[in-house]
Amino acid sequence: MGDMEFQDVVRHRKMVRNYSTESVDPAIVDLSLHNATRAPNAGFSQGWAFLVLDTPDDVRRFWVAASDDIDHPDEWLTGMMRAPVVILPCSSKAAYLNRYAEDDKGWTDQDEARWPKPFWDMDTAMAALLILQTATDAGLGSCFIGIPPDKDAAVRAAFAIPDDFDPVGVVTIGHHAPGEGAKGSPTRRARKPVADVVHRGRWGQLGGHQASPSA
Ligand SMILES: Cc1cc2nc3c(=O)[nH]c(=O)nc-3n(C[C@H](O)[C@H](O)[C@H](O)COP(=O)(O)O)c2cc1C
Asked: What is the sign, positive or negative, of the torsion defined by CA atoms of 53, 57, 62, 63?
């Protein structure tokens, strides 16, 4: 299991939206979860949790809660629903506010204005990437998707997700079925050249307000 070179994992990882029903070795799921807990995280807060759905009943319950019309699935949903494993990486803002109120951090007011970015979601997203990469390394397909805002309550209710944890999205894992299935955005858009997105030393003219060329 998992003997690809790191560069091959990075290059081969892509979102898979067309799965077969072939089962996934539970050891790979376990490894992906162990790897997830190696993700970098602010203050070693580890304010994350992973809801694992790996039975046909649980997986179906997820798609019922997360979809508009599971009885008339489009190509995307048909391909995605076959994934035998669904993982919901969840983040806890409260865990971070509490952690940073500890003595070695000292943000005892727990003022949310102190947070430059929502580290709880960032850290959980980094953990999700490790799950995706572990699946790729094991020769499996995987995909990260968001939960539509109008389905959030139903998904929480279906699995009794506690109020202080937020699913940041969903990771599907399974074997790639023959054929591409529903097409993702990369079929409609080109990858930006590195030179277009990297700025070395400075970005624009120093000493003035910068208007982004793309604005
Ligand atoms: C935060 C996030 C949300 C995404 N949501 C969806 C989604 O709802 N449906 C989907 O098919 N793909 C979704 N994707 C996958 C992206 O379309 C995909 O990562 C992007 O097009 C780049 O392609 P690649 O990951 O295959 O290289 C999402 C990816 C991320 C990171």
From this structure: positive
Parallel/antiparallel/unpaired status of strands 170-174 and 166-167: unpaired
Task: Please tell me the residue having the least CA distance from ligand 1 atom 10.
Answer: 145
The secondary element (H helix, E strand) that includes residue 26 is helix 26-36
The verdict on pTM exceeding 0.85 is yes
Contact 127, 37 (CB under 8 A): yes
Type and span of the H or E element at 49: strand 48-53
Q: Is 186 in the pocket of ligand 1 (CB under 6 A)?
A: yes
Task: Give CA–CA dist 138/100, Å, rounded.
Answer: 36
191 neighbors 160 (Cβ within 8 angstroms): no
Helix (H, G, I), strand (E, B) or coil at 22: coil
Q: Is the CB–ligand 1 distance for residue 184 below 6 Å? A: yes
Contacts of residue 36, defined as CB under 8 A and 6 or more positions apart, other chains included, come to 48, 50, 89, 127, 128, 130, 131
Tokens standing for 19?
A: 């799965």
Q: Which phi and psi angles does 153 have, rounded to 5°?
A: -65, -40
Q: Express each pLDDT in 110-164 by its tens digit.
A: 999 999 999 999 999 999 999 999 999 999 999 999 999 999 999 999 999 999 9
Q: How far apart are CA 30 and CA 142, in angstroms?
A: 15
The two three-digit tokens of residue 57, written as one number: 């009943």
**What residues contact 215, with CB distance under 8 A and at least 6 apart?**
none
In ligand 1, the atom with minimum distance to the C-alpha of 13 is: 27
Between CA 123 and CA 108 the distance in angstroms is 21
